[in-house]
Specification:
The chain has ten helices and four strands, in the order αβααβββααααααα. The chain has 232 residues and is mainly alpha-helical. The chain has a domain of 63 residues. The strands form two sheets. It has a two-stranded antiparallel ribbon with strand order 1-4. Strands 2-3 form a two-stranded antiparallel sheet. About 22% of the residues have low confidence.
Length: 232
C-alpha cells in the first residue's frame, strides 16, 4: 500500500445543479434520529440546530427549556470525537474511532445553505475521514479485506475524494480483485460527473497500470512451456 492517508477532498467549485437523491434522502442528520421524549419535543424535532451551535434554541427562535429531552445524532458524534482525544490505549482509541464512523451520517445538514453550517460541516467530514483512515491504516497489514470495506464506506462520506479511490484500487490489486479496479474507476467517474469533473490523470494512470500489470501476469502464466527434448 502506498498511502491510506486519505484526506477530505477540497470543496468542489460551485456548480448549478439540483440536490442529489442522496442528499435529499439523507436530509439533515443533525436531527435525523431525534428521539422525542415528549410531545412538545416531537413537534420541534425537524428544526433542531442546538447540537451544532451550542444554543438551547429551536430554529434560533424558540427556547428549548429542556434540551435533555431531545437526543441528537450529532451529540454522539461530537462526544466520540472528544473521547478519541482522551483515549489512553490503542484498544480504547480504536473503539471511539469506530463510534465516530458509525455516528457519521454523511453531509452534515444536507440541504441547508446557511453560512453558519459550512465550517462545522467540513470539520465533521474531516473528523470522519480522519477516523476511518486511521482505522484503515491499523487494519491494512493484518486484515486488508476489512480495510477495503472501511475505504469503500469512506467514499460515501466524501464521494469526490480521489485519494480514497486510489487506495481502494491498490487494495483490490493486492487482494486479487482485479475486475474491481475498472468498476471503482467507473464509480468515481459517475460521481464526478455530478460536479462536471473527471478523474485526475494520476487516478486514470494508476488504474491502467494495475490492470496492465495483471494482464501481463496472466499472459506469462498462460504461456506454454518449452517441450522437453526427445531422449536419444
Amino acid at each position: 500500500m502506498t498511502s491510506l492517508v486519505s484526506r477530505p477532498s477540497s470543496p468542489p467549485s460551485p456548480v448549478s445543479r439540483s440536490p442529489s437523491a442522496r442528499a435529499r434522502s439523507a436530509s439533515c442528520w443533525i436531527c435525523s434520529s431525534i428521539t422525542a421524549r415528549s410531545a412538545a419535543a416531537a413537534s420541534l424535532a425537524c428544526s433542531v440546530f442546538t447540537s451544532v451551535t451550542g444554543a438551547s434554541y429551536i430554529s434560533g427562535v424558540t427556547p428549548l427549556n429542556n434540551p435533555d429531552r431531545v437526543d441528537v445524532d450529532y451529540h454522539h458524534f461530537a462526544h466520540a470525537e472528544s473521547e478519541s482525544r482522551r483515549a489512553h490505549s490503542t484498544t480504547q482509541r480504536l473503539t471511539v474511532l469506530r463510534e465516530i464512523v458509525d455516528a457519521y451520517r454523511g453531509e452534515l445538514g444536507a440541504g441547508i445553505d446557511s453560512e453558519w453550517i459550512h465550517t462545522v460541516r467540513h470539520a465533521a467530514q474531516r473528523t470522519a475521514i480522519n477516523a476511518i483512515s486511521e482505522l484503515a491504516r491499523h487494519h491494512a497489514a493484518d486484515d486488508p479485506r476489512h480495510t477495503l470495506e472501511l475505504l469503500e464506506t469512506a467514499t460515501g462520506f466524501d464521494p469526490y475524494n480521489e485519494h480514497l479511490y486510489r487506495d481502494i484500487m491498490r487494495l483490490q490489486d493486492r487482494l486479487g480483485i482485479h475486475d474491481g479496479i475498472p468498476r471503482t474507476l467507473a464509480l468515481l467517474e459517475v460521481r464526478l460527473r455530478d460536479i462536471d469533473c473527471k478523474p485526475a490523470p494520476e487516478t486514470q494512470t494508476l488504474a491502467s497500470a494495475l490492470q496492465h500489470r495483471h494482464a501481463q501476469h496472466v499472459h506469462i502464466s498462460l504461456a506454454p512451456t518449452n517441450p522437453m527434448s526427445p531422449r536419444r
